Amino acid sequence: xxxxxxxxxxxxxxxxxxxxxxxxxxxxxxxxxxxxxxxxxxxxxxxxxxxxxxxxxxxxxxxxxxxxxxxxxxxxxxxxxxxxxxxxxxxxxxxxxxxxxxxxxxxxxxxxxxxxxxxxxxxxxxxxxxxxxxxxxxxxxxxxxxxxxxxxxxxxxxxxxxxxxxxxxxxxxxxxxxxxxxxxxxxxxxxxxxxxxxxxxxxxxxxxxxxxxxxxxxxxxxxxxxxxxxxxxxxxxxxxxxxxxxxxxxxxxxxxxxxxxxxxxx
Length: 266
Fold this sequence. Notes:
Blueprint (H helix, E strand, L loop, with lengths): L3 E10 L2 E11 L4 E5 L6 H8 L7 E6 L2 E2 L5 H7 L1 E3 L12 H8 L8 H5 L4 H19 L15 H14 L4 E5 L7 H16 L4 E5 L3 H7 L2 E6 L2 E6 L1 H6 L1 H8 L16
Parallel strand pairs: 3-8, 3-9, 6-7, 7-8
Antiparallel strand pairs: 1-2, 1-4, 4-5, 9-10
Helix pairs in contact: 3-6, 5-6
């Protein structure tokens, strides 16, 4: 059984259909990349999965349970975490505090125990603080753990956002353009952390990305969207050679009459 199933989902914005009966499956333990030209519907699809957007048609299942009508906070509590295209951190708070916020849905306590800090609330905070410290070590951010996020380098802020998703201890992580704006060294670091999270922490990962070299290097499968429709799906090698994908990205064909993909491109 797939961990995540999206069946025939459509989303309209006024008279514009952003998603047109899109279906996909994400298998437990894999890295699935969703790619496509600008405006293809990639982020819209993620926002439907996370219930940021309601949608017109279709159903979504997570671990066999339908989540189509659940609010976004309940979807997160089930174990689906995400990052955003634009960094969404609390810039005046420290790295440690920002990542701690990711564990908030797990720190369940009553109003009374939360009000009286020196009880269950304190014990839970100490418990999760240890896990947060492990995440900071995992992402190699010990040197900035108590630094305010705002002045930090862009690549470090992206790493903090990834750490906040890990703090939820999710079963599925969705990364929306996690490489955007990074230099080569920062991209290499992020790729390593994503692979380690997948292999060592057993996290299933869906990523949206424009860097084709990065996508082809670390993904198990690739799904291609174009104008709100699923254009192709398969292994990185299959997608790299797919003539429809080549045409959508490069405006040519796979018969030698147009541009052909170079290494690291679909």
